[in-house]
Amino acid sequence: MLKQSFSWWSFANKGVDDAALLNGARKIGFEGVELLPGNLLAAARDCGFVIASHNGHNSIGDGLNNPANHDRIAREIDENLTVAAKYGIANLIVFSGNRLPGQSDDEGAEVIAAGLRRVARSAEDAGVTLIMELLNSKVDHAGYQADHTDWLAKIVDAVGSERFKILYDIYHMQIMEGDLVRTIGAHASRIAHYHTAGNPGRHELIGEMQEISYPAVFRAIAATGYNGFVGHEIVPAGNPLDALREAYGLCRESVG
Q: Is the preceding omega at residue 37 within 30 degrees of 0, hence cis?
């Protein structure tokens, strides 16, 4: 059975207050929650949640591919490692940043790897995994550099730390490259976390226009022996608790 979490930002402030959303998700069966504002971390733990991921540094678009950001990002990661230790957070999310003028993808990869090697030892000592999120540059994040799995996998290998892995976002990678099941199998050892959402639209996982076969994807993840969280990052078209209930049920039914 896959452990399931949900991203706070995509379900919050949609007609259900914070306490009702946390308590409702726990009643559904969710074990984890992600990307909470700092003022809700303690409340989530009090509800019995594992905090499955938290931001490692500021800014998606202004990230690790710019060497001028490395000092700032290293400080922010160190600060968030302290937060992670306090709340038992397993993963901190990091970002490549948008492509820089005149910088090739190979050069960007080298800069990112160098920046991550600076902080890898601190993550190792803290027992926290830094996970770089794959995002699409076609619809939602124009210019974002970490937009293909094979490219990011090379950075994981170059950094060479068990505390740096991939956050494989199924929605984003369906947009950019498809071939989800094969890719998950090929890169399972490099993936430490998953996000879901329906495509097109980033809405519920079930619908007439849904092009991702999530039961097959969930089975592919389970077949790798993965023991982390699958995080639902859906922007619900309807009631957020209904969307959470549907996503939880689909995942659970898919893997038995």
A: no
Domain regions of the chain by residue span: 3-239
Whole-number Å distance between alpha carbons of 26 and 19? 11
Q: Please report the DSSP string for 106-122 in residue order.
A: HHHHHHHHHHHHHHHHH
- Residue 24 in contact with residue 245, Cβ under 8 Å? no
Dihedral, CA of residue 114, residue 58, residue 86 and residue 113, to nearest 10: -10
What is residue 1's predicted lDDT score, i.e. its pLDDT?
85
CB 183 within 8 A of CB 173: yes
User: 3-239, superfamily in CATH?
Assistant: Divalent-metal-dependent TIM barrel enzymes (3.20.20.150)
**pTM higher than 0.70, yes or no?**
yes
Residue with tokens 């090929």: 186
> Among residues 184, 54, 43, 164, which one has the least CA distance to residue 114?
164
Number of residues assigned to the chain: 256
Question: Where does 32-142 show beta strands of DSSP type E?
Answer: 32-34, 50-55, 91-94, 129-133
pLDDT value of residue 79: 98
The secondary structure of 151-181, three-state, reads: HHHHHHHHHCCCCEEEEEEHHHHHHHCCCHH
Mean pLDDT, rounded, for 100-120: 98
pLDDT in tens, 33-77: 999 999 999 999 999 999 999 999 999 999 999 999 999 999 999
